[in-house]
Amino acid sequence: MATTSSTSYFERLQDFVSENKKAVLIGSAAAVLAVGGAVYYASTSRGPGGDLEKGKSRDKKKSSKKRKTVNDADGPLLEEIKPKVVEVEEDARLSPEEIAGMPVEERTKLAGTLKTRGNALYQNRKFQQAVDMYTRAIEVATKPEPVYYSNRAACYMNMSPPKYELVVQDCDEALRADTNYVKALNRRANALEALSRYEEALRDFTAATILDKFQNESAAQAVERVLKKIAVEKAAAVLATREPRLPSFTFISAYFAAFRPRPLPTLPENPSTGDNTLILALQALEAADYAHAVSLVNEAIDQGVSWETGKAEALNLRGTFKFLMGDVSGAKEDLYESVKIFPSLTQSWVKIASVHMEQGEGTKAFECFEQAIKHNPQDPDIYYHRGQVLFITNEFKEAADNYTKSSELDDTFVFSHIQLAVAQYKMDELARSMATFRRTMTNFPQRSEPQNYYGELLLDQQRFQDAVDKFERAVELERAKPPPMNVLPLVNKGLAIFQWKQDIGAAERCCEEALQIDPGCEPAVATLAQLSLQQGKIDRAVEMFQRQAELARSEPELVNALTYQYASMAQLEFTRNYPAMAEQLAQIARSMAM
Ligand SMILES: *[C@@H]1O[C@H](CO)[C@@H](O)[C@H](O)[C@H]1NC(C)=O
Ligand SMILES: *[C@@H]1O[C@H](CO)[C@@H](O)[C@H](O)[C@H]1NC(C)=O
């Protein structure tokens, strides 16, 4: 079975300001809720309030004492309870004919009296009797009174066991009569959550939170809680049914770029069909045609590779693709098998180390590097990758030493230099780090990566103009070489412009261009989603989060994308159900983006 967290170890290495990037996006866009949070400040007008709203603020303090008599602080409001219990003259239940024969005024008065008695019974925890009283009030009233239904729902909620279905039914009625009835929304939401009807619960909690201008913290927390339940549930369903597949081009090429290129293995004298297929697979890999490389290497192994080195290479490649597709244990098997056949295959050792890291087995990872060094002490790849592992465990000094060692053995590998500069930056050796970057840019004038990562460093220091210049140079260099193009500098440029000038349009154009070139570029999709959210273009945000979820490789990524997706969907639904507030929300979203 494919495990869920496959490639996060490499992701963390992909670019060092990724943490930064997230902070930027989360800081300004935040959860969807933040958009609504400002509703509180922006609006003073309210929808039809009715006695409930007035009662709430007026009786807040006084109410706290009395409310304690009932477990559910959310029961019928005090104001409704305060008046003395009025005896109903006719205690017997009236027949429909008798009710129909009464004048309207009298019916309304009687209904009010019945409700008041219901409130008193509720207060004394006589929930079934209270229900009967509210039912009678509902029968007598000449029009649907939301309060009667909502109060009866409160009784059902307090019964043991609670009658959630009936709570939902009554709240449906209450909300049909008054869509802005926050208490009924909260009550129905709680019942729906208890019934595991999470999406509906989310709809109600979201509406309650926004309508209540974010004053009710427990409702806001409920939104988060239910969102999490939904996202985890949906993610599990997606992962259980999804076919394993390759990540985006950008991602795979970044992965393979972390290894120095090696010559093709020499074929034996009389190569078998499988041997030739393996060479084709390795050639496809060189040509960055990953889809072909996968099917060819599988084919080669099925056909049978005739010589030992070839077998080890084939298993190394198949294991690598398994790893990239999230099958960590399958990858481990292939890679271990390959070093069993050919113990000095450094690449396999290094990749096994990363599988161990992925599984949180740091000690084993370092043992793999030792094994690799034992067989091949002069292999620069080993030191580079050991540096990477040290880097993500924040051992920057040792990481820097290992990068340096890697460059001493072979100084033509651009990433050893870049990572050294980044490690120096992490150790607060700013001047040295920038010097390393400048030297690397000079020594690798045709490579976009030093420009791109130096740009990230500059962005981290808020040197916006310089950062954008570097990203543009990186884009230029990428365009100058034969395709496919690495689009990360383009996304970075968009982010930089956004941080610098709050120019959302320009940032979006960068991301969209990146997506045209690499439709699977996850950072571009994620950025576009957040930018849409900031502009209150919620439907577009939903679309982007959906896409982000489709592209997600690991479970945490998927849960994250789904959380945003469902939060946005709930907000979209809110704007449909409460069109009067939609424009207001959109305005606030726009002002929040500034
Ligand atoms: C606040 O929200 C919670 C959760 O939905 C709800 O139970 C409670 O009644 C709400 N409080 C008020 C004062 O509306
Ligand atoms: C590389 O890292 C290891 C720790 O895993 C450390 O012992 C060693 O000194 C570092 N430097 C070199 C040059 O290998």
CATH homologous superfamily identity of the domain at 96-240: Tetratricopeptide repeat domain
CATH fold-level label of the domain at 96-240: Serine Threonine Protein Phosphatase 5, Tetratricopeptide repeat
* CATH architectural designation of the domain at 96-240: Alpha Horseshoe
Shape: elongated
Biggest sheet character: none
Number of strands: 0
CATH class of the domain at 96-240: Mainly Alpha
Please bin the fraction of helical residues.
over 70%
Count, helices: 33
The hetero molecules present are: 2-acetamido-2-deoxy-beta-D-glucopyranose
Low-confidence stretches: 1-69, 78-90
**Rg on CA atoms, Å:** 32 Å
Q: Average the pLDDT over all residues and give the rounded result.
A: 84
What structural category arises from helix and sheet content?
A: mainly alpha
Strand content: under 5%
Instruction: For the record, give the distance between the C-alpha atoms at the N and C termini, rounded to a whole number.
Output: 46 Å
Coiled coil: 181-208
GO cellular component, one term: mitochondrial outer membrane
Keywords: Coiled coil, Membrane, Mitochondrion, Mitochondrion outer membrane, Repeat, TPR repeat, Transmembrane, Transmembrane helix
Protein name: ADP/ATP carrier receptor
Concise overview:
With 594 residues, the chain is mainly alpha-helical. 74% of the residues lie in helices and 0% in strands.
Task: Explain what you see.
GO terms for molecular function: mitochondrion targeting sequence binding; protein transmembrane transporter activity. Residues 57-68 have a biased composition (Basic residues). It is a single-pass membrane protein. It holds the Pfam family TPR_16. It is found in: Mitochondrion outer membrane. The structure is a single chain. With 594 residues, this protein is mainly α. The chain has a domain at 96-240: Tetratricopeptide repeat domain (Serine Threonine Protein Phosphatase 5, Tetratricopeptide repeat). The protein is built from 33 helices and no strands. Helix 26 packs antiparallel against helix 27. The two termini are 46 Å apart. Residues 1-69 and 78-90 have low confidence and may be disordered.
